[in-house]
């Protein structure tokens, strides 16, 4: 999440509807210790059961135990899991503490909670509200602040107070008291607010993020935090975030690390995307991606998400613009690709986009007297046609690379048009087909990270009443920031994720 982001907190529609009828969530379980207890709840006894102490080689066993003890150093906060769509934990603000549940969000950088002075938004009345008058450590700031997310917005003003996370207390922390939370998203959310763990570069109001102050105030031994999400909603602990370390009980093997390429979000370079082991070619030359604990699903460019959803049989939305482009311009696109015309110039050459020197740009963004007189609808139509053309070029290029005949290429592109997902929406799938769906893999740091169907399909209910939703949703972020993939909870649930602030890198290992 964060200012400027197009999408955030892609809550499942079913989760939101059920939240309206569901009973209040159980009280949060928080582990306010810097080291796991030596009991059967995931501590050293668990290490023995997992084989750390089961080796006949005492030296190896001792080294493994030392590793477990060393890595478990850190401030551990347990998370609750609601329908695999929302992971949230508890913090305290003020003296004495006022308790709030928050999303620990690596896609934004501000902390905000509802204010007692939030009178006009219904969402505030469904959640805990901060009362400045009841805190002995409160300090007034008053500077106005607002944050817009893909699923809603909040506004209010900054205040200053102490913030307790796990077993540590961050002093003099700037945060936003939200006085407005319009829309249904925040009203039905299981959490009260959001604690951003992104970089200060995207912090609203230039506020110093909580994590920065944890490091600056010496509250963690190592400038690292890590996430584990339990993808079995309702079974055991919902998840865990460790500030200052890594819990070895929640991953297998070694982490693959990649450097942060752009501070703001935790952004890194990603390589090819594979469907059923076959290259899509879309990111073969590289794409940008972010690891985002505040996004429920996995988002990517429409062109590749549509191919994925077509392969898994996800029902999308028919795009007339897409079909029109294929019908009128498909053969011209094929001819130009075969003539080795630069792909980024093709849509401008057929008159659907304007080439800016690096890529196609919708002519809707170039206002004219004609546009003003014709109204905004003409501009929106141009933009849709340009986007459809850019998407078709990617698909056609990929099919030609597989030596498909031109007729088959155009037939296949028409099929893909029918699978175009709703922007920011979900696509349903047949629950009975999950077992036959292909694996989807992402290349990161030269390693393939595979998602199996049961990992990327979200299932709600059992039997005939079960509903299944594709974990992939489309979002097009234009250059120079994009194309940008958002690897949300779908991905982070399968792969334990380490955010190494000290060395500016992100690490992934198979979740245990």
Automatic annotation (TrEMBL):
Family matches, as Pfam families: Asp, SapB_1, SapB_2
PANTHER family: BETA-SITE APP-CLEAVING ENZYME, ISOFORM A-RELATED (PTHR47966), OS01G0663400 PROTEIN (PTHR47966:SF4)
Organism whose genome encodes this protein: Urochloa decumbens
Protein name (record): Aspartic proteinase oryzasin-1
Any one annotated GO CC term: vacuole
Location(s) in or outside the cell: Vacuole
Keywords of the record: Aspartyl protease, Disulfide bond, Glycoprotein, Hydrolase, Protease, Signal, Vacuole, Zymogen
Similarity annotation: Belongs to the peptidase A1 family.
């Amino acid at each position: 999440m964060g200012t400027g982001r197009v999408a955030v907190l892609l809550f499942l529609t079913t989760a939101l509807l059920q939240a309206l009828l569901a009973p209040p969530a159980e009280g949060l379980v928080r582990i306010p210790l810097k080291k796991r207890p030596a009991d059967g709840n995931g501590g050293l006894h668990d290490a023995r059961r997992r084989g750390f102490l089961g080796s006949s080689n005492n030296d190896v066993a001792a080294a493994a135990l030392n590793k477990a003890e060393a890595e478990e150093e850190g401030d551990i906060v347990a998370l609750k899991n609601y329908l695999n769509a929302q992971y949230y934990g508890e913090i305290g603000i003020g003296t004495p503490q006022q308790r709030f549940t928050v999303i620990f969000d690596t896609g934004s950088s501000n902390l905000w909670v509802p204010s007692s002075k939030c009178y006009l938004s219904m969402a505030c009345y469904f959640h805990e509200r901060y009362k400045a008058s009841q805190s002995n450590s409160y300090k007034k700031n008053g500077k106005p602040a607002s944050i817009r997310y893909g699923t809603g917005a909040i506004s209010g003003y900054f205040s200053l107070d102490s913030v307790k996370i796990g077993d540590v207390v961050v002093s003099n922390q700037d945060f936003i008291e939200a006085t407005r939370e319009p829309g249904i998203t925040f009203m039905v959310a299981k959490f009260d607010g959001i604690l951003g763990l992104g970089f200060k570069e995207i912090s609203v109001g230039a506020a110093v993020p909580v994590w920065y102050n944890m490091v600056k105030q010496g509250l963690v031994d190592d400038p690292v935090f890590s996430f584990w999400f339990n993808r079995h909603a309702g079974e055991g602990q919902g998840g865990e975030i460790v500030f200052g370390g890594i819990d070895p009980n929640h991953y297998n093997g070694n982490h693959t690390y990649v450097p942060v390429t752009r501070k703001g979000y935790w952004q890194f370079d990603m390589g090819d995307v594979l469907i059923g082991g076959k290259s899509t070619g879309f990111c073969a030359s590289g794409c940008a991606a972010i690891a985002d604990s505040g996004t429920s699903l996995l988002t990517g460019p429409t062109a590749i998400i549509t191919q994925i959803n077509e392969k898994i049989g996800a029902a999308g939305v028919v795009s007339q613009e897409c079909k029109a482009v294929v019908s009128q311009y498909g053969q011209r696109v094929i001819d130009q690709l075969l003539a080795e015309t630069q792909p980024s110039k093709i849509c401008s050459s057929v008159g659907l986009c304007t080439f800016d020197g690096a890529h196609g740009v919708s002519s809707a963004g170039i206002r004219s007297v004609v546009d003003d007189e014709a109204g905004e609808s003409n501009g929106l139509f141009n933009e849709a046609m340009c986007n459809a053309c850019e998407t078709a070029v990617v698909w056609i290029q990929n099919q030609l690379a597989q030596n498909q005949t031109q007729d088959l290429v155009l037939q296949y592109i028409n099929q893909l048009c029918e699978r175009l997902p709703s922007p920011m929406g979900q696509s349903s799938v047949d629950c009975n087909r999950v077992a036959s769906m292909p694996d989807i893999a992402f290349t990161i740091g030269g390693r393939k990270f595979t998602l199996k169907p049961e990992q990327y399909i979200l299932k709600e209910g059992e039997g005939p009443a079960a509903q299944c939703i594709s974990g992939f949703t489309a979002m097009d972020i234009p250059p120079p920031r994009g194309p940008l993939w958002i690897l949300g909870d779908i991905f982070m649930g399968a792969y334990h994720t380490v955010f190494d602030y000290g060395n500016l890198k992100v690490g992934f290992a198979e979740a245990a």
